């Protein structure tokens, strides 16, 4: 007995830990929303390209577009143009779109449109980078100034991260004579980034320019320059003005390198204008779109991967254990008597179609009439199988009559009574009549009322939308329910109704 108890406790512990672990992994690692009404950001980005085309030469426009290999995934990408050919290529880790036309004249307008969202998958793609680079050739005073800057940088740094941060801070100190010499009177952000790259190359530390767009709605946007370096494991991003490490979460990486955003052959006065707007979408629907547009497996092994019609069936099926748990608590802890465990749950499922109030009325009418017929058949001394067949046929005829009458009276809700499980009603009538004969009418009514109450409560709980979503999205929670049910299997204590029944004995004992 003791080994059996330890075995049961061990089994319960495994089920509970496994259920909690899988659910926690889905919530905290995969990022699956806990509530159905949770929404996520959906970003719409428009890049408007304007230029003046030359009438004599063919036109070729090249512009960088986001690689979308880090934190964001594209749901829709379109290139809008009139009589232009479009091609997208990958160049040195970047993506570049090329618009081309044999003839174009005057003012031209092209659009690049992107709809994106955050990646759901917990495993983001990692792109490796160089950890060593050759020194940039520099001579004379510039070389002396760069080496002079390196001495205090080495002294005040301990690793690659602090080394780069210190170098950026030194280059941004415009009061330093070495910095003034290297900048040559050009303190622009791009030129300072170039000097940082020069100084770091002497120490063989690779660094590259990163151009980002800030995801802020309804504000003018221009690409923002950042620096990054690969430390052997991760990319480290740095603000080129302050040396602060870490790319903000609202930055979208657009392209890397020294090249300009756009180049135009056969035209002039090229200009790119960015406009962004933000909207929200249901998180689960957005996750489905993410899976469809990428190789992610966010929902691949979940119930959301099933066909839609099958999903609707499983939304009902996964709630059956919840209904069974309600009946288990009502019977074993409270002491309410019902016709078994599964009969109230199946009746609760039927209430999904009829709705609770109308379902209770229909259930009561059909059961009462069925009991009357069962009582009459008892006088005919029929065997059990023919008797059940007659009752089942009577239930079918009665359901048809109620449906027809409801339709004539304009009560369309009454048509759903046809979805009541006829076999369940037949067996309910049979078992109630047997209970009536064996234990009296009072006990039979008590069991009937208990069954109806348990079915109603189970229906109300099984129909809570938030609970349906949670159990369907995190089915591992059912393992925790199984653990609780196993624990309840060893409960031998008093039920609440028994405490009321034996209250008189307690008073006598105290007296």
Q: What's the main sheet like? A: 4 strands, antiparallel
Question: How many separate structural domains?
Answer: 3
Give average pLDDT, whole number.
Answer: 82
* Spatial ordering of strands, largest sheet: 3-6-1-12
Explain this structure:
This protein has helices spanning 2-29, 140-155, 160-171, 177-183, 189-202, 283-293, 308-317, 320-334, 342-354, 356-379, 384-408, 422-439, 441-462, 465-473, 477-488, 496-501, 503-510; strands at residues 39-53, 59-65, 72-80, 85-91, 94-101, 106-118, 208-214, 224-230, 235-238, 251-256, 262-265, 267-282. The model has no long low-confidence stretch (mean pLDDT 82). It contains 17 helices and 12 strands. Strands 3-6-1-12 form a 4-stranded antiparallel beta sheet. A 4-stranded antiparallel beta sheet has the order 4-5-2-11, with no helix packed on it. Helix 8 (320-334) runs parallel beside helix 15. It folds into 3 domains: 39-125 and 267-293, Immunoglobulin-like; 140-252, no CATH class; 312-473, no CATH class. With 511 residues, it is α+β, with helices and mostly antiparallel strands. Strand 8 and strand 9 (235-238) form a beta hairpin. The longest helix has 28 residues, at 2-29.
Index terms:
four-stranded antiparallel beta sheet, elongated, alpha+beta, Immunoglobulin-like, about 500 residues, 3 domains
Give the helix/strand layout.
Blueprint: H1 2-29, E1 39-53, E2 59-65, E3 72-80, E4 85-91, E5 94-101, E6 106-118, H2 140-155, H3 160-171, H4 177-183, H5 189-202, E7 208-214, E8 224-230, E9 235-238, E10 251-256, E11 262-265, E12 267-282, H6 283-293, H7 308-317, H8 320-334, H9 342-354, H10 356-379, H11 384-408, H12 422-439, H13 441-462, H14 465-473, H15 477-488, H16 496-501, H17 503-510
Antiparallel strand pairs: 1-6, 1-12, 2-5, 2-11, 3-6, 4-5, 7-8, 7-10, 8-9
Helix pairs in contact: 1-15, 2-3, 2-4, 2-5, 3-5, 8-9, 8-13, 8-15, 9-10, 9-13, 10-11, 10-12, 11-12, 12-13
């Amino acid at each position: 007995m003791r080994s059996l108890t330890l075995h049961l406790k061990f089994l319960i512990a495994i089920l509970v830990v496994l259920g909690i672990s899988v659910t926690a992994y889905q919530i905290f690692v995969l990022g699956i929303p806990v509530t159905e009404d949770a929404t996520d950001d959906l970003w719409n980005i428009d890049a408007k390209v304007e230029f003046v085309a030359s009438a004599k030469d063919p036109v070729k426009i090249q512009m960088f577009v986001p690689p979308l290999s880090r934190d964001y995934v594209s749901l829709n990408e379109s290139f809008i143009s009139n009589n232009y050919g479009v091609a997208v290529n990958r160049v040195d880790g970047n993506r570049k779109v090329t618009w081309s036309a044999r003839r174009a004249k005057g003012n031209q307008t092209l659009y690049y449109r992107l709809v994106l969202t955050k990646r759901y998958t917990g495993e983001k793609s990692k792109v490796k980078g160089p950890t060593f680079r050759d020194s940039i050739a520099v001579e004379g005073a510039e070389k002396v100034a760069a080496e002079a800057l390196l001495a205090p940088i080495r002294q005040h740094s301990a690793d690659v991260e602090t080394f780069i941060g210190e170098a950026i801070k030194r280059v941004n100190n415009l009061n330093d004579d070495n910095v003034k010499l290297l900048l040559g009177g050009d303190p622009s952000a791009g030129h300072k980034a170039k000097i940082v790259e020069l100084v770091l190359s002497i120490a063989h530390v690779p660094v590259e320019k990163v151009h980002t767009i800030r995801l802020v709605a309804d504000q003018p946007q221009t690409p923002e320059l950042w620096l990054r370096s690969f430390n052997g494991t991760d990319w480290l991003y740095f603000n080129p003005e302050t040396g602060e490490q870490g790319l903000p979460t609202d930055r979208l990486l657009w392209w890397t390198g020294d090249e300009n955003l756009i180049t135009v052959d056969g035209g002039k006065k090229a200009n790119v204008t960015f406009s962004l707007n933000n909207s929200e979408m249901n998180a689960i629907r957005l996750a489905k779109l993410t899976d469809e547009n990428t190789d992610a497996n966010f929902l691949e092994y979940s119930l959301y991967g099933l066909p839609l019609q099958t999903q609707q069936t499983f939304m009902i099926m996964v709630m059956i254990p919840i209904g069974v748990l309600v009946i288990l608590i009502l019977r074993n802890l409270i002491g309410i008597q019902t016709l078994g465990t599964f009969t109230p749950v199946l009746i609760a499922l039927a209430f999904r179609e009829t709705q609770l109030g109308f379902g209770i009325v229909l259930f009561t009418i059909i059961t009462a009439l069925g009991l009357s017929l069962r009582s009459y058949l008892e006088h005919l001394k029929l065997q059990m199988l023919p008797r059940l067949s007659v009752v089942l046929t009577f239930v079918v005829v009665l359901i048809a009559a109620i449906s027809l009458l409801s339709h004539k009276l304009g009560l369309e809700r009454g048509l759903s009574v046809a979805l009541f499980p006829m076999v369940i009603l037949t067996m309910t009538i049979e078992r109630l009549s047997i209970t009536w004969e064996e234990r009296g009418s009072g006990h039979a009514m008590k069991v009937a009322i208990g069954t109806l109450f348990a079915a109603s409560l189970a229906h109300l709980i099984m129909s809570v939308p938030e609970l349906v979503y949670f159990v369907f999205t995190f089915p591992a929670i059912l393992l925790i329910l199984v653990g609780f049910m196993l624990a309840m299997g060893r409960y031998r204590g008093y039920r609440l109704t028994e405490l009321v029944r034996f209250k008189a004995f307690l008073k006598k004992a105290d007296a």
